[in-house]
Design brief:
5 helices, D-Maltodextrin-Binding Protein, domain 2
C-alpha cells in the first residue's frame, strides 16, 4: 500500500498513479521483497521508479516510515508494517484509482511437521481474511 504524511496533498483523497509520480519516492534497496513487488506493479503500468520526481533508497523500514512521517516523500509498504502509524494517524494510506498490487504468498513447512493440523487450520484462517 502507498503511504504518506497526514499533511501530504495525497492524503484524504483518491489519486491517480500519475499524481504520485510528482512526489519523491522512498523505497528499499534492490532485492527487497517490497521493492520487487512495487517495481513489478509499476512495470505492469508501463512505469518504473525512475518516473517519480526522485527516488531515495533506504535499507531500513523504520527510517523509511520516519522520513514519510516528516513528509520527505511517499513509500509503498506492507499494511502490517505501518498499522500502528495508520492507527495513530502519523501516516495515511494513499488511495490510488486503478492501481492494485497483488502477489502470491506461500506458506511453507516440512512434511510431517508436528502440529501440522493446527498449522493448516491457521493458514486457512489467514487465507480467508483476504
Amino acid at each position: 500500500m502507498g503511504v504518506c504524511a497526514p499533511n501530504n496533498e495525497l492524503a484524504n483523497k483518491t489519486n491517480t498513479l500519475e499524481e504520485l509520480l510528482e512526489h519523491n519516492l522512498i523505497l528499499r534497496e534492490p532485492g527487497s521483497g517490497t521493492r520487487d513487488i512495487l517495481e513489478h506493479a509499476l512495470y505492469n503500468q508501463n512505469l518504473s521508479i525512475y518516473d517519480f520526481k526522485s527516488h531515495m533508497v533506504i535499507g531500513n523500514s523504520s527510517a523509511i516510515k520516519q522520513l514519510c512521517q516528516q513528509n520527505a516523500g511517499i513509500t509503498f509498504i506492507y499494511r502490517e508494517a505501518v498499522k500502528d502509524q495508520l492507527l495513530s494517524g502519523t501516516l495515511k494510506e494513499i488511495a490510488i484509482s486503478n492501481f492494485t498490487v497483488n502477489h502470491p504468498f506461500n506458506f511453507v513447512y516440512l512434511k510431517n511437521t508436528p502440529n501440522q493440523v493446527q498449522l493448516e487450520y491457521w493458514f486457512d484462517k489467514i487465507i480467508r481474511l483476504r
